[in-house]
Design goal:
Distance between the termini: 33 Å
Mean pLDDT: 95
CATH class: Mainly Beta
CATH architecture: Sandwich
Shape: globular
Number of strands: 10
Number of helices: 2
Low-confidence stretches: none
CATH superfamily: Jelly Rolls
CATH topology: Jelly Rolls
Structural class: alpha+beta
Strand content: 25-35%
Order of helices and strands: HEEEEEEEEEEH
Number of domains: 1
């Protein structure tokens, strides 16, 4: 049995804090070819996940926050926010599922946030995500400003917990 406990969550969270991308996955699936991808996804508030969708190949993706707070945001084709949810287990809002072909991103709003992520496999990095051209690419200038703008649009500019 693989146990998802405080020790494992803290271990992966510590690795996220020291990684260049400020996030870290811990995969439960044994290979990229697995038809169900399951992982812990630890992320810090200063990480950036470029908005993307999973289409062609079609994939459903779900997130369940185990610790911390993460904003899950959905967009239309032009990058306008159409829905969002603050995933916070202390408030009884545990997770969200993203349907096939829906643009989305996540923004950590509390240090030490960790989500359990599940999505259809297999994983092939060359086709796994369709990245939005209306948002900065990961590593480009303006990524944090983009996240901050999204939080402001949602009225969450003062929500960051450290």
């Amino acid at each position: 049995m693989l146990k998802i406990d405080e020790s494992l969550i803290s271990q992966i969270s510590s690795k996220a804090k020291t990684s260049k991308r400020r996030r870290m996955n811990y995969n439960f699936h044994k290979e990229d070819a697995a038809t169900l991808q399951r992982m812990l996804n630890a992320m810090e508030p200063d990480t950036y996940i470029q908005p993307h969708k999973h289409q062609d190949p079609d994939k459903v993706e779900a997130f369940f926050v185990l610790r911390g707070r993460i904003v899950l945001i959905e967009f239309n084709e032009n990058g306008k926010i159409v829905d969002h949810s603050i995933l916070d287990p202390k408030q009884g809002n545990y997770g969200g599922e993203i349907p096939i072909g829906v643009w989305h991103t996540l923004i950590s709003i509390e240090e030490g946030s960790v989500a359990y992520e599940v999505k259809d496999g297999p994983y092939d990095p060359s086709v796994d995500k369709n990245f939005a051209t209306w948002a900065p690419k990961e590593g480009d200038d303006g990524c944090q400003e983009y996240n901050n703008r999204l939080l402001c649009e949602l009225g969450l500019e003062n929500i960051l917990v450290q």
